[in-house]
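Hey,
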Amino acid sequence: MIKLPIVRKNIWRYGFWFCAIGILVMSLAPITVSMPTTGWDKSNHSLGFAVLGLLGCWAWPGRAAVVLPALLAYGGAIELLQAFTPDRFAEAADFLADAVGLLLGAGLAFLLDRWCPMSEGAK
């Protein structure tokens, strides 16, 4: 069995908030600003929210039933905010991509916890 390095919950939480703010900034920045991309908008959404889902599940272990719906609401709020920007617009498909990403991230968190368990104090 593979052992993951011991990391405190606070590190996962700092990473989570850093990513959450980064996703917000990238989602609302003008399209003319050069940003990292996967090449397809929907995969950008899925990847970003997969990372948030994974970090959220690790930052608040045992709270996925609260974290994941809150992150989905966050994705919805970002879509609504985009409707008020001059070069962005809200899309239901982006919201769906966010949901798919959250499921992938939560699934990965579950699998990694199962295959590479960390002690509860390490999270």
